[in-house]
Amino acid sequence: MYKIRLSQRGDILRQKEIWKLCFGDSDDFIDFYYAQRYKEEETAVLLHNNEIITMLTMIPVKTVFPDKRMVNTAMLYAVATHPSHRNKGFAGQLLNFSNQYLKDRKIELSVLVPANRKLFDYYPKQGYEEGFYIQETILNRESIDRMSVPKPYHCEISAISSKEYNQRRTERLYGRFYISYADEDVDYQKKLSQSSGTDIYGINIENIEGCFAAERISSEKLFIKEILIPENLLNLAIKQIAKLLPAEEYVLRTPPYLGNYLGGSIRAFGMYRVLSKSDLRITSKDLGYLGFAFD
């Protein structure tokens, strides 16, 4: 027998066990998530013989369209089934339950970020389609040093609050199709960044304001999870980031329309499912942008 419900007190240890088995994250990372972001009322679990075997989290976000429409959305996160219970349809059952639960609460879209490439083939069977993309570029210190800067603009970078970051993010994505996060979720990203020895930052170049979120992978490798700045100022921003946060290798994620000249590759990043009967239409041409997504 199986049962589906929202999470309750006493469920966390089993959830942490499944998370570790499915995603391979460190105990420190898992403990950090449950201490800083976990909410029982946003977590659904499926039990088989009174034991949790599948889980997922429903993070409330907004989908913003170029015409300024905002749609209530949930980002499904940490969708996981215990390895000994896979290929039995349990994840599909929990997804269907969660999406109906969201629909009943007037949520119009469900989005998620598949944990690996194989899952891009699985989720269409659950009603999901590709709709959100990123451009990912690997840069080394030498290539950054060689970047040309058209004008010697003054560039300042400093850590900023979650609220200010979110304001800048909204301004830089104006007129685009993207996922908007609550300040508390940007604050979670700030804490993630700080736990790695970095932060979320504001970029000021003359009278232009931008932002970026970084995480240090190692002393030699830096992950820039998001950077939002006009394209003509991108090289200058990257060079200043390299001075502030030195590394040998930089993994740079940008929206799919930003920094094509850097030689990276655009790939599908997030998927969506329409939950309500509406006129919502999303195509690959929209090049939706999801952002840091806590992956």
UniProtKB/TrEMBL annotation:
<dbReference type="Pfam" id="PF13527">
    <property type="entry name" value="Acetyltransf_9"/>
</dbReference>
<dbReference type="InterPro" id="IPR000182">
    <property type="entry name" value="GNAT_dom"/>
</dbReference>
<dbReference type="GO" id="GO:0030649">
    <property type="term" value="P:aminoglycoside antibiotic catabolic process"/>
</dbReference>
<dbReference type="InterPro" id="IPR016181">
    <property type="entry name" value="Acyl_CoA_acyltransferase"/>
</dbReference>
<dbReference type="GO" id="GO:0034069">
    <property type="term" value="F:aminoglycoside N-acetyltransferase activity"/>
</dbReference>
<protein>
    <submittedName>
        <fullName>Putative acetyltransferase</fullName>
    </submittedName>
</protein>
<feature type="domain" description="N-acetyltransferase">
    <location>
        <begin position="2"/>
        <end position="152"/>
    </location>
</feature>
<dbReference type="InterPro" id="IPR051554">
    <property type="entry name" value="Acetyltransferase_Eis"/>
</dbReference>
<keyword id="KW-0808">Transferase</keyword>
